[in-house]
Amino acid sequence: MHRFFVDRKNISEEKKEIIIDYREDVKHIGKVLRLCKEDCIEVCDGNNNDYIGKIISISKSQIKLEILERKICDTEPQIQVALFQGIPKSSKMDMIVQKCTELGIYKIVPIITERTIVQLKDKKAEIKKIERWQKIADSAAKQCKRGIIPKVEAPLSFEEMLNSLADYDLKIIPYEQEKKVGLKNILSRNKEYKKIAIIIGPEGGFEYEEIIKAHNAGIVPIMLGPRILRTETAGLVALSVLMYEIGDLGGY
80-245 — its CATH code? Predict the structure, then answer.
């Protein structure tokens, strides 16, 4: 069944009615999918509530649904994981956003480090990039039936990122020079983490001084295995291991 997200204000459980008025979704439902009155679609409010709605009217500006069923979405992990990703070259960030959304990421924050090659020329270019990445997250969240849409936030400098991590239970930074501390070992010490931050460097990794600053800020350098992973691989691996260890991937 086709799935769409709507703002909570567009759902009236009292009237048993949902209004879809996001222009691209209206066009997609009517023109691309060619759905008609009496067809049913799945709708999520972005806050873990799912609805089955039957189309009762279609216009160019909105689609009205009758609520047939409401249920709690069961696809969200029990922990909130944020990825702080050094901005990579080319379209690598597109893939990172898409796949991390599929794996259960809570939010993604691009970061600018010493070795970041990509330069966002101005605020307009930055906004355009964020809008693109957010659309990719939106689409991936629909496809994999997420209960929320992960937010792609505005880029932070490395220092700004360090100052934003106070409320995380665990903060990890994969580093190729770390040879002893592994992610599995850290997770075995405490299974009660609720908010976890993963910090990934761009191509070329982090400067040693950045690792020292991160360590001083309570971020744990870890190894992800004996091989050096690309920037677009490292975050996905760390996230996958986290989800597996909490039982979100591979069963309990």
Answer: 3.40.1280.10
